[in-house]
UniProtKB/TrEMBL annotation:
PROSITE patterns in alphabetical order: MULTICOPPER_OXIDASE2, TAT
Protein family (similarity comment): Belongs to the multicopper oxidase family.
Organism: Streptomyces tanashiensis
Top-level EC class as recorded in UniProt: oxidoreductase
Keywords: Metal-binding, Oxidoreductase, Signal
Signal peptide region: 1-26
Subunit: Monomer.
UniProt name for this protein: Multicopper oxidase CueO
Residue ranges occupied by any Plastocyanin-like domain in the UniProt entry: 78-191, 379-489
The keyword Coiled coil is assigned to this record: no
Pfam entry (one): Cu-oxidase_3
Protein origin, superkingdom: Bacteria
Length: 489
């Protein structure tokens, strides 16, 4: 019998690398780092430019190679490239077609997208469209990798409503380092409902990926598993940059692209962010959010009205999340540089979702426990319900078309986690025994779970049959083994 472990083993062997047992990342180092720059633990890092001294890039929008009938076809090469992140230094990164930050694909509900990825690395890869309802063959299962010099075509049926999705590497034991080094991109799915709304569009609809990083003395990205010293904040790949805006409304599609860091975002003048969407698309109503919290993998679309500020205003997006404020407290500065006409507005009602009381009855209630070693050992392991990820084990079987309640608990005392389910968008019913707040009342695929906390989720499995995974999306934790397989049958 050919198992999923053997499939990955063959790909790793072809790359001249060992297949590690789950959680066996010796010394806290990911084995994927073999051919990539490593940290100089006792040397001063390369200097980071002063805050707001560089301009934030806007990621490029890809054009289909062909568009025929009801299908758009793209072709990308996954390869190494260099990026000018720090002044005067060429930093080696991993990219989709050489783009750092990753590119943007625009898609429309009901219209298929095919993406052929060519692997130009010396490592196996797997591409996951995060938040998408796709068949197992195109989900990017951690063990369903394709090796160096080969290609894989992913078929995205786009049967779900609008959502701000993203794609990233998901090859097990390597996902954390590969994403850290740049393998992520944006996938914006729209539909007629969203297009009818008078929200900011075009150049005033801006995807922004925020994340952290650490650089070694040569200005190279330094990767160590569970590194707490990633204190350089990047916005669209630039360190604490500035971004010129007009005095009008902007839609900012925020993604936390970090491996571990939680962000708590707010504007320096105290103006609330107007959140209009979360992982799975628009909320029912806009929500004024004084502080927006995002764990790794979570998305939130916000509208900021810069017409409230005169030309010449400089407004900082700040972070009050974990870390020293002088290191991680500044994310991005908006510089209001001109006036502009603004026909956009934020409607009082954005979409209609069924209330929690009207969701389908749950056939099963499940209890999921997330945990990891927090005793200081050099090679911590991650667990779901006390077990390390085993790709040859199916942990949960669900009936196609059924709805279930999943109670997800973080049993750690100090370490935060979050929880991501492939295939589905779920509803957050409760957090810590209380009803979910308005920012979590929409469709979600990733949710934070703080130490000792339980979140209660309603999940309906009506997309596709087959095997998928659920895991902590703090990717260092999933690489440590905090992942499990579910089968829809």
């Amino acid at each position: 019998m050919i198992t999923r472990r053997r499939v990955l083993g063959g790909a790793l062997a072809a790359a001249g690398l060992p297949l590690l047992a789950p959680g066996s990342l010796a010394g806290g180092e990911a084995h994927a780092a073999g051919a990539l720059p490593q940290a100089g633990p006792h040397r001063a890092p390369a200097p980071v430019p002063p805050a707001f001294s560089t301009a934030m890039p806007v990621p490029p929008v890809l054009r289909p190679l062909t568009s025929t009938g009801n299908v758009d076809f793209y072709e990308l090469t996954i390869r190494k490239a260099t990026a000018r992140i720090l002044p005067g230094i060429a930093t080696e990164v991993l990219t989709y077609d050489g783009h750092f930050p990753g590119p943007v694909i625009h898609a429309r509900s009901g219209r298929r997208v095919l993406v052929r990825h060519r692997n130009g690395l010396d490592m196996p890869v797997s591409v996951h469209l995060h938040g998408a309802s796709v068949p197992p063959s195109s989900d990017g299962n951690p063990m369903d990798v394709f090796g160096p010099g080969t290609s894989r075509t992913y078929v995205y049926t786009n049967r779900q409503p609008h959502a701000s999705l993203w794609f990233h590497d998901h090859s097990h034991h390597m996902e954390a380092e590969h994403v850290y080094r740049g393998l992520s991109g944006t996938y914006l799915l729209t539909d007629a409902l969203e297009q009818r709304l008078p929200l900011p569009k075009g150049r005033y609809d801006v995807p922004i990926t925020i994340r952290d990083a650490r650089f070694d003395e040569h200005g190279q990205l330094a990767y160590t598993m569970a590194d707490r010293n990633r204190t350089t904040i990047l916005a669209n790949g630039a360190p604490t940059p500035s971004f010129e805006v007009a005095a009008r409304k902007y839609r900012l599609r925020l993604l936390n692209g970090s491996n571990l860091r939680l962000f708590a975002l707010n504007l320096s003048d105290g103006t609330p962010l107007i959140q209009i969407a979360s992982d799975g698309g628009l909320l029912e109503r806009p929500v004024a959010v004084p502080v927006l919290t995002l764990s790794p993998g979570e998305r939130a679309d916000v509208v900021v009205d810069f017409s409230r500020h005169p030309v010449g205003t400089r407004l900082v997006l700040t972070n009050s999340g974990p870390g020293r404020p002088e290191q991680v407290g500044k994310v991005l500065r908006f510089d209001v540089v001109r006036t502009a006409d603004d026909p956009s507005r934020v409607p009082e009602v954005l979409r209609t979702l069924p209330p929690a009381s009207a969701l389908p009855a749950a056939a099963v209630t499940r209890h999921i426990e997330l945990s990891m070693d927090e005793d200081g050992r050099p090679d911590p392991r991650g667990f779901i319900n006390g077990q390390l990820y085993d790709p040859d084990r199916v942990d949960t079987t669900v009936a196609f078309g059924s709805s279930e309640i999943w109670n997800v608990t973080n049993t750690n005392k100090r370490v935060a986690h979050n929880f991501h389910l492939h295939l589905v968008q779920f509803r957050v019913l409760e957090r810590g025994g209380r009803p979910a707040g308005p920012t979590e009342a929409g469709l979600k695929d990733t949710v934070r779970v703080m130490p000792g906390e339980t979140v209660r989720l309603h999940v309906t499995f009506d997309g596709f049959r087959g095997e998928y995974v659920y895991h902590c999306h703090m990717l260092d934790h999933s690489a440590m083994g905090m992942m499990a397989t579910f089968r829809v049958r």
